[in-house]
Amino acid sequence: MGSSITIPTLDKSGSFPTYCAEPDGTPRAAIIVIQEIFGINPGIRQKCDSWAALGYLAIAPDLFWRIRPGIELDPDIPAELQEAFGLMGQFDQALGIADIEASIHEARARTGGGKVGAVGYCLGGRLAYMTAARTDVDASVGYYGVGIDGLLGEKHAIAHALLLHIPQADHLVSPESQAAMHAGLDDHPKVTLYDYPGLDHGFAAETGLRRNEQGAALADSRTTAFFAEHLG
Question: Tens of pLDDT along 167-214?
């Protein structure tokens, strides 16, 4: 269902690869799928394919392309998990947001100016929050975003709907950080937070040891309804 397309950077100094899944017929809207620290691996491609099956154009930009294009890692393999944490340390988040914005422009062009949403996981969950604050994306969803409590100073810039999924047993996001997210965002008119008791980071991964079927089904159903409401 998907294929590789290349998108120029905002400053036209280069271009980056993406995985693009197209629906049958005219897209109802577009969704940018923002990767974890594991690159555009089979799980991220599967998420794009699932959105395409629901009628959306789905684009997953390779945000690690400046480090090394085509990274695909498996979080269930300890050496690859450690490699992924190392890549996180090398990643320039501001340039990542610029590439997401370029992907939004591409998605709008491919849908004739239609609405564009963004959904991200882990690192991508953090970037989904940043995308909501720093771009004109029409709606955003973040799953188990890391370090969002340190970005609350940007909440005033969130102009469109944002949904955050927070597993309460997330070993990468402390209870104190989760409490700060609620204190800072619960009264924001554009932001909705859902807690998932007992669930850990990565619970909505498509495959692998981190996945929790019941939790993933609940969170994904909420995301699907959210995008149907805000994107069409």
Answer: 999 999 999 999 999 999 999 999 999 999 999 999 999 999 999 999
Question: Using an 8 Å Cβ cutoff, are 128 and 34 in contact?
Answer: yes
The pLDDT-based confidence of 111 (bands split at 50, 70, 90) is very high
The pTM of this model reads 0.97
Distance CA 53, CA 58 (A): 10
User: 59: closest CA among 5, 130, 133?
Assistant: 5
Instruction: Report the side by side order of strands in the sheet with 57-61.
Output: 2-8, 15-21, 57-61, 30-34, 116-121, 139-143, 161-167, 191-196
**Residue 165 designated active-site:** no
For the chain, the first-to-last Cα distance in angstroms comes to 22
What is the phi/psi pair of residue 35, to 5°? -65, 160
- Tell me how far apart the alpha carbons of residues 166 and 1 are, in angstroms, rounded to a whole number: 31
Q: Which of 165, 170, 220, 230 is catalytic?
A: 170
Q: Which domains does the chain have, with CATH numbers?
A: 2-230 (3.40.50.1820)
Q: Which of 62, 99, 138, 201 is catalytic?
A: 201
Task: Give the DSSP letter of residue 17.
Answer: E
Active site residue 201: yes
